[in-house]
Every structure is written in C-alpha cells, then in structure tokens.
Amino acid sequence: MSDNTPSDHCPLCHEVVDVFAVGQCDHPVCFKCSTRMRALCDQLYCAICRANLPKVLFTEKRCQFNSTKTNSFMVYRKLNIFFENRALQDRFFKLLEHRCKLCPPSDVKPFRTFSALQNHMRREHNENFCELCLDNVKIFSSERKTYDRKKLAEHRRQGDEDDKSHKGHPLCQFCDLRFFDNDALVLHLRKQHYFCHFCEADGVTNEFFDEYNYLREHFRDEHYLCEEGECADTEFTNAFRSDIDLRAHRASEHSKNMKKAAAKQARRIDIDFSYSGRPSEYPSRGGGRGRGRGSNERQERVITAEDYEEVQQDRKSLRQQRQQERSGDGYAFN
Ligand SMILES: [Zn+2]
Ligand SMILES: [Zn+2]
Ligand SMILES: [Zn+2]
Ligand SMILES: [Zn+2]
Ligand SMILES: [Zn+2]
Ligand SMILES: [Zn+2]
Ligand SMILES: [Zn+2]
C-alpha cells in the first residue's frame, strides 16, 4: 500500500480524503463514506472486500490498521469507531447533525432528532422534505433537500432541476399514489393490482389491470376464458392459453352439466382430435381466431405453426390497439 500522497481519493465517493477510515482489511475510505455505511446503513463491513469490520480507525494520515496503537484514541462505542483525536471525533458528530440550513448557524443549535428538524423546517420556513426520499435514500440530514409546496410537487412529478439523474417518483395511475422508483411501483402493481400470467410468460411485463374485471376482459379478448357454470365466478383458473386447453377443461369440468347430446358432441370432439394429424387436408382458417361454433369448429382444432404465427400477430395488434384505446383500466408504463 502506498504512503500518504497528495492525491488520495476515496475509492467510493472519489473525493480527496482528508480523514481516513480503515479497518482490519486495510482498505482505507474517507470518513464520510465509512460513517454513511456504519451510522446510516447499519453496514459494518468493508465496501471494497466486504470483510466484516468490527472496529475502524479514523486518522488524519493513511495508516496500517494492525500497526497503529489506539491507546490514546477516543472511542464511539456504539459503532466502534476509534478517533485519533478530538477534532476528528467532532467532525464525525458534525456529520450526523440535524441542522437548519436556512437559519444563521449562530441562531439555532442543531436539533436532537431529524423529526425535530423536519417540524422546524415546516413551521418556520414552510419547507418540506420528500417523504419518499426520506424512506429510501440513506444520506446525511445536511445532504437532504427541502422544498416549498410547489417545488415538492415538481420533485415528485419530474425530479429536481439541478439533478438530472432523478426523474421524479413514478405514479400508480390506479391509486394515484407515487412510489420511490419503478421497482417499487412494479412491486405495488403486482401485489395490489393484476397482470396476465400468459402475457408475462410471453415477455409482456408492463401491462397491468386495476381490477380483476379488466383482467377477465383481457382473458376473454386475448386468451381463452371459460365462463360456464361455476367458472363464471372463478378467477385465474378458468383462463387458458389455447383453445385446446379450454376444450379439454370444458370436457373434464362441465361435461356432466351438459345434456346427453351435448356430452356426446363433446366426446366426439375429443375423438376428432386424434385424427387431426394431417393438417394439409384442412384449408387454413383464414383471418382471426374465429371462435364461433359450427362449421368452423373442425378447422379450428387444427392449429398449425402458421396459425400460431397468425394468432400471435393477432394478439399483438389487438394488444397495441387496446393499449392505445384504454388508458384508464389497463396501462403501460416506461
Ligand atoms: Zn468517500
Ligand atoms: Zn476491505
Ligand atoms: Zn431554520
Ligand atoms: Zn423524493
Ligand atoms: Zn395502485
Ligand atoms: Zn394476456
Ligand atoms: Zn369452466
């Protein structure tokens, strides 16, 4: 390891290090990054090699952990941080202060807790912190921004003018609630709303439905839905990917409800199946999936690769069309 040089940059934040933090693995970082990890994130390991660091030393010069005598160091037991001198300890505590940035420093002391600062900002300055950022971003109080009412709305909707990396907090259009980021929104959509497991398996992962009724409609329009008897009130298990699956389901679940003739018909369909090995005999089904009963029935049962393409195409364009039409009950987000 090289000696202290003028260009000692922290490998985590890339800033020049003026106070070093080092643990038993001898990977020094700046004291801000070390404090951020230990105090804000409860992570007591090295960010470089992930070695557990029960104890770290804060020193003015780069040092070797094992050859540094710490008898005269001051200790913050809660996080087992050893400070070379009182000045370093003061800087550590200053980092964790909850201080108003708008009042002159001589006028107000730092607040004991963050929520005391939050109340002060609201009452005295009409400024607010973003609750979503508070819950999700681990930074020092002094690094947090406050906003007036209008700027907070802007921050939530589209982000801050001076920070292009943050594009605002995405909205669930169904609940009119914002979430920290897209991951959090998707988690919410999957838990609180509905998505189609067929489409998801086909790679469509951004289509959600407010209520089950809209998903049922989707099953009916784009897949195969059984609404016979008890299936009318069933969720999920009465939707099928293919006509064949739907027919198999009908034959096994609903045939006892059918009148004798219809049951006979259902059995005949099954038998027909086994003879469908020569698709060349049958003309192509023509446009669409044609789910009507009657003369088409025989042709429908023969699904060729060609048909499959056509069905996929069909669904794709239908889906696109629906996405354009409906922005209320089902929507795609980016
Ligand atoms: Zn750093
Ligand atoms: Zn390390
Ligand atoms: Zn103030
Ligand atoms: Zn925010
Ligand atoms: Zn929602
Ligand atoms: Zn679907
Ligand atoms: Zn059914």
Tell me what the structure shows.
The chain has 334 residues and is α+β, with helices and mostly antiparallel strands. It folds into three domains: 20-95, no CATH class; 114-169, no CATH class; 211-332, no CATH class. It has twelve helices and eleven strands. It is elongated and about 90 Å long. The two termini are 46 Å apart. 17% of the residues are buried. The model is unreliable at 1-6, 271-315 and 325-330 (pLDDT under 50). The site of one zinc ion has 5 residues, from helix 4.
List the helices and strands and how they pair.
Layout: E1 20-22, E2 29-30, H1 31-40, E3 56-59, E4 74-76, E5 81-83, H2 86-95, H3 114-125, H4 131-136, H5 149-158, E6 171-172, E7 177-178, H6 182-192, H7 197-201, E8 207-209, H8 212-222, E9 224-225, E10 239-240, H9 243-253, H10 260-274, H11 297-300, H12 305-325, E11 330-332
Parallel strand pairs: 3-5
Antiparallel strand pairs: 1-2, 1-3, 4-5, 6-7, 8-11, 9-10
One zinc ion (ZN) binds at residues 196, 198-199, 218, 222-223.
